[in-house]
Each structure stands twice: as structure tokens, then as C-alpha cells.
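Design job #97: recover the sequence.
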């Protein structure tokens, strides 16, 4: 089965589910109703096990197929891909580690429908990691607080990073473990249902089997495509938002019988200016999706090289560079699309009953997670001085014992 055939077959399988999720998107937004039902639908349909190899009971899809489906899901409701971002990052980390025992242990839980959230970043005056791991009876004890814990409210497990002495330590904690509390206190104006609030750990027991990795400052993912993977998740979500903007703008125009400045009834869908706006929206959506899928192909090549032990530093550099380049363009394209859609309807397009503003708010929020200006500078440094983004980052933080690269790259 070709990659495109695989995607089409899975798209046909999941499309009714995506349509069901999309049907409730506006109501959830209006009422700020957390998407527990939608997440449960994905869980029960096996969506969360898409990347788990068939030998472990999953679908074993390629990265281009995964990101194609994530774009489809984001078109239905852009909160959903962000909710499962940490989960898929955890799975990808296990795939990339090629640790057979770890894969056997954790993939069985993924195939059973269990989900992961992240507890990596903190809200503080400096880039610190204040969560601590200390030796305790029967294993370890975890204490501290994290913010921006995307998806954790919906999850069964939390993937967190803590400090032990001067080392970073990646751990996994069950959300129902004594001492774990989660709060729905995310106050961003977009992605309001993503569950990106606070997680607290109060003397939480962590068994040795749930300690994934220990590393020194400056050693975070020296060679990996995981950071690019996490960034591409945001870009796939943005590409889905662009599609949703095209869909909603088209539906809005097709139902109208009056146009600005035209007396009596008219047909806005026949207006050349309106047609031009829709045409532009279609181009922006297509270009964004194309860039995401092209970047996914690069990541897939790196993943395949890892499986055959042929991956080189240049492969990881290319993954970062191509994803950073896509980011610079996709952000602008989608933000343009989510503003331009209002040009087709005048003031009536601002009705809260339609919530068309959610597309811009969600896109702007996603675009702010990993500021593009820093990635643009990294690209310039690479092309001018031959310094890869990973090398530049490691040099900057090699002496900083309390810095985490981004929202889940350490797992």
C-alpha cells in the first residue's frame, strides 16, 4: 500500500469521527466546554495509537500520514491536535529511543487507549526547572509545579522533567497518583480548550521503571528530530485552521443574499471581489498544508535512517532547518487567512453565534508558543555561519543547569 493510499484509507475511516467532533466545535467554544467527549472518541477509535508499530498492536503509520490526519482533525477543531501533541511526542520519543523494553512497557498502555500530557514548562521570572526529584522509599519522590501542561487534564499520564542534584530527569507519573493535582487555569484567548493549565506534584511517588532518562545541562537531544516534530505539530494545526477558514468563509458566502453597496437582493458568491477573497484563502490553505507535509517527509526520512542506524548529524540538522523554514511561512499564511475571511461578510461575519474569530485567536496563540523571530535568527546564523540551530542552542545553555529546551523536547 502506497503512502497516499494509506492516508486515504485512514482518512475515510476517521472522517465521520472528525465531522462529529467538528459539529460541536462552535458550541464548545461558546460555552468553554472542555472536549472530553471528543478526546474519548479519538481514544476509542485508536487514533492515539497511530504511530505505534503493528508488532505492538498499533497502526504504524508514517509521519506524513500522521500529519495529514492531524490537519484533518485541526480543521474540525484545532484544540484537539494540541491536546494530543504531548501524547504523540511521548510515543515518538519511545520510537526514537529504540529501547525495546521501554517500548514493550509503554506501547501496551498506548494501545490500550491511555493518553499522555506534558508538564515541562514553568511560569516564572527566568528559564528555570524548579520541580525536584529526590530519593524516597521504594523509588523517588517528585515535588513542584508546572504550567503550560498541554493535554494533561485529558490524560492518564503526565510526562514531566525534574531536577535531581544537577541533572535533568524525565519521568512519567499517573494523573491519579496521590499528590498529583491538575487545574483548568489556562487563560489564553485562544486554544481555550487545550487544557494547558497547572499541574502540581506534592511528594508524588515515582517508581524506578517510570524514570525514562537522565542527562546533563547542554545534553538535551543533541541529535534528534523530536524538537522539529513538536514544532510541526503546531504547523499542522495551523494548516487545519487555514482549511477551516476557507470552509467557513465559503459557507458564509453561499448562504448570503445581499452584498455591501449593492441595492436589494444580490448574489455575493457571484461577486468577483468575493470570489477573489475565497480564491486567496484556498491558496493560503493549500500552501500551508503543502509545507507541513513536505516537512513531514523530511522527518520521516530521519526516522527511517534511525531505524537502520544510518542517521547522521546532517539529517537532524535538516529536520530542524526545514521545519523552522516552514514555520516562517505557515504562520504568516494562516494569520493572513484568518483575518482575510472577514472580508467576505462585513459586520455580520463578526457574530458571536458563528465564532469565526476563534480561527484567528487560535492561530495567534499557536504562533506564540515558539516565537518565529528566534527561529528566523537561527536560520540566518546557519546560512551565514554554518552553525546549526541545535549547536547554537547547546552552546547558549551549556552552562545553564535549569533550562528546558521547549515544551516537551526532553521526554
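Job complete. Output follows.
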Amino acid at each position: 500500500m502506497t503512502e497516499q493510499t494509506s492516508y486515504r484509507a485512514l482518512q475515510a475511516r476517521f472522517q465521520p469521527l472528525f465531522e462529529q467532533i467538528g459539529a460541536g466545535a462552535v458550541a464548545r467554544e461558546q460555552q468553554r466546554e472542555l472536549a472530553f467527549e471528543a478526546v474519548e472518541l479519538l481514544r476509542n477509535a485508536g487514533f492515539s495509537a497511530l504511530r505505534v508499530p503493528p508488532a505492538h498492536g498499533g497502526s504504524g503509520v508514517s509521519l506524513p500520514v500522521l500529519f495529514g490526519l492531524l490537519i484533518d482533525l485541526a480543521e474540525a477543531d484545532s484544540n484537539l491536535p494540541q491536546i494530543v501533541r504531548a501524547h504523540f511526542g511521548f510515543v515518538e520519543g519511545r520510537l526514537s529511543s529504540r529501547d525495546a523494553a521501554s517500548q514493550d512497557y509503554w506501547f501496551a498502555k498506548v494501545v490500550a487507549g491511555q493518553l499522555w500530557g506534558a508538564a515541562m514548562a514553568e511560569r516564572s521570572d527566568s528559564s528555570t526547572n524548579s520541580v525536584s526529584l529526590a530519593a524516597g522509599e521504594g523509588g523517588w519522590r517528585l515535588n513542584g509545579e508546572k504550567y503550560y501542561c498541554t493535554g494533561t487534564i485529558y490524560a492518564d499520564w503526565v510526562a514531566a522533567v525534574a531536577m535531581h542534584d544537577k541533572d535533568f530527569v524525565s519521568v512519567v507519573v499517573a494523573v491519579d497518583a496521590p499528590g498529583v493535582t491538575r487545574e483548568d487555569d489556562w487563560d489564553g484567548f485562544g486554544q481555550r480548550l487545550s487544557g494547558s493549565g497547572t499541574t502540581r506534584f506534592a511528594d508524588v511517588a515515582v517508581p524506578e521503571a517510570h524514570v525514562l532518562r537522565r542527562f546533563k545541562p547542554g545534553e538535551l537531544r543533541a541529535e534528534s528530530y523530536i524538537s522539529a516534530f513538536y514544532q510541526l505539530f503546531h504547523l499542522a494545526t495551523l494548516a487545519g485552521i487555514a482549511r477551516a477558514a476557507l470552509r467557513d468563509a465559503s459557507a458564509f458566502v453561499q448562504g448570503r443574499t445581499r452584498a455591501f453597496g449593492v441595492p436589494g437582493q444580490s448574489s455575493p458568491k457571484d461577486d468577483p471581489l468575493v470570489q477573489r477573497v475565497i480564491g486567496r484563502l484556498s491558496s493560503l490553505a493549500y500552501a500551508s498544508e503543502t509545507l507541513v507535509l513536505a516537512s513531514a517527509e523530511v522527518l520521516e526520512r530521519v526516522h527511517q535512517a534511525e531505524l537502520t542506524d544510518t542517521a547522521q548529524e546532517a539529517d537532524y540538522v535538516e529536520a530542524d532547518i526545514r521545519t523552522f523554514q516552514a514555520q516562517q511561512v505557515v504562520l504568516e499564511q494562516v494569520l493572513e487567512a484568518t483575518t482575510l475571511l472577514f472580508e467576505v461578510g462585513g459586520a455580520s461575519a463578526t457574530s458571536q453565534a458563528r465564532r469565526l474569530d476563534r480561527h484567528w485567536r487560535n492561530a495567534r496563540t499557536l504562533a506564540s508558543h515558539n516565537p518565529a523571530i528566534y527561529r528566523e535568527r537561527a536560520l540566518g546564523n546557519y546560512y551565514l555561519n554554518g552553525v546549526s540551530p541545535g549547536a547554537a542552542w547547546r552552546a547558549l545553555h551549556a552552562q545553564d543547569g535549569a533550562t528546558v529546551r521547549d515544551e516537551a523536547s526532553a521526554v
